[in-house]
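Consider a typical record:
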Amino acid sequence: MDKNKIRIENLTVKADNTEILKNISLSIRQNEILSAIGPAGSGKTTFLRCLNRLIDTEEELSVQGSIKMDDKDIFSPQTDLSFIRRKISMVFAVPTPLPMSIRDNLRLGLRFQKRLSGININERIEKSLRAAFLWDEVKNRLHESAMKLSGGQQQRLCLARSLMVKPEVLLLDEPCSGLDPISTAEIEEALKNLKKEMTIILVTNNVKQASRTSDRTVFFLMGDLIEMGETGRIFTTPKDKRTSDYVSGRFG
């Protein structure tokens, strides 16, 4: 039986009287890639931001329901936010390297580590860059500015930076939206390897990417969870006509 890493029950997010997410309940398995698909405005990014409590920064939003990771409520007042950010890392749609060296960008990924003693920084950097399929391209350029990298390299650097803290859950919000096919393929291959060590939740508007990469897929529409299941079934024999219409390109 697959172990559940995250369990979400009755998650509702509101902005004033508008529901962005409507009573969402689902479980996310350990060591799986779960894709979240749906047209713009369906609540996918809001869903992702709830998982590592980035939603806390949006004061106009209210959150109800529960999210538990390993049976621990991440919204509990007793939960250490830095603990959450160490365990649940995130890569955004637009690459966010800082104007410093490649090496220093990666060291920044350790900012949530309370203890650095015993960590071999150089080994951690090499392992993270290899996992992001970037090591061979930058191994002799670690002291150069990260801003000199191409867009695809910058996004893989951001992925490597997230991996520096050895997260248990990796969140990705449209990580390939502005990338060329080669960079996209490298990130997808990296994710397939990384799921051996962590749980991955991928928000994507590219249904082909979801079908290539994920084990299961969840379809959101206007804040509702319409359907969730094994990716092969979602894309071949969806149970809901709205899912069928979306994955076949009739809307969205």
Remarks:
- The longest strand covers residues 4-15.
- The chain has one domain: 4-247.
- The beta strands are 4-15, 18-29, 33-37, 61-69, 72-73, 88-91, 169-173, 199-203, 216-221, 224-230.
